[in-house]
Amino acid sequence: MSPIRPTIVASALITTGLMCGSWWLNSACAKPAKTPPVVLSKIISLADLHDEASAQLTLAKQYLDTKKSYADSAKHELPRAAGVLAVIGQAISQHDSRPTDRKPADRPPINGSMLRDTALKLATSKTQAEALSLLPTLQAIINGRSSRTTASRRSWKGLISLHHVMEELNSRNSRLRRAVRRSRDPKLDSRNAATMSLLGLVVLDDTHEVKDKTRLPKWNQYSVDFQANAAATAAALRSGDKKLIKTLYLKAAKACADCHSDFRSE
């Protein structure tokens, strides 16, 4: 999979109107400042992660439904959906809250590590038959019927390519932009914004496209601000604060323009 240049990254996200900004890092610092510990419950809930996992698996099944749908999606859409599924699995495995208050008959917890690792296999599958063979395992994991294993930790980098992250953000932002004007389903729109915020963790961690390492603080600065604004937009959508939704979205759009201005020369 070919890498995506920062120019393309910035251009894609300026089109969406959502990415980057400035928050707490000192851009004048030559070395990247450490980011604060990620509190995933402030980004996305376990319930939203569960729903998003089901939605991404449904997409994967559609891409694998026929030889034509597989051929059309094998290079882009299928590995992108699998990559998002891997990010969701990672988030579940590292989430700081646990579904202890749920009834036994309610949604059983998903084994995040197994979901992540199986989704990564789907993303790198080479044939339709190989990809199809992974669907029953993924469905069992999402249904909470997987075997118990010790959760393993790994970097957000490598779960999904930066190129696919940008494509996913572009796609999701078209829905978010409509929701900012008028949300017909606040719960779904909030989940969409929260998932965008979650993908921001990949952007923050995957800095391989920053060739001038003295500019890493800027990359981090924009990534953290995008992630924070998307998470705040999700919360505002859920609470129904229309004025706050628009304010947060516009802040994120301005941050995107700043990111484009800083990185387009590269």
How would you summarize the topology of this molecule?
Elements: H1 6-16, H2 46-63, H3 67-73, H4 77-94, H5 112-123, H6 128-142, H7 162-181, H8 186-205, H9 216-239, H10 242-263
Helix pairs in contact: 1-7, 1-10, 2-4, 2-6, 4-5, 4-7, 4-8, 5-6, 7-8, 8-9, 9-10
Shape: globular
Q: Count every helix, treating DSSP H or I runs of 4 or more residues as helices.
A: 10
Global structural class? mainly alpha
Largest sheet: none
Condensed summary:
The protein is mostly helical and 266 residues long. The chain has helices spanning 6-16, 46-63, 67-73, 77-94, 112-123, 128-142, 162-181, 186-205, 216-239, 242-263. The chain has ten helices and no strands.
Tell me about this structure.
This protein is mainly alpha-helical and 266 residues long. 63% of the residues lie in helices and 0% in strands. The chain is built from ten helices and no strands. It has helices at residues 6-16, 46-63, 67-73, 77-94, 112-123, 128-142, 162-181, 186-205, 216-239, 242-263. Mean pLDDT is 83; it is low at 1-33 and 101-105.
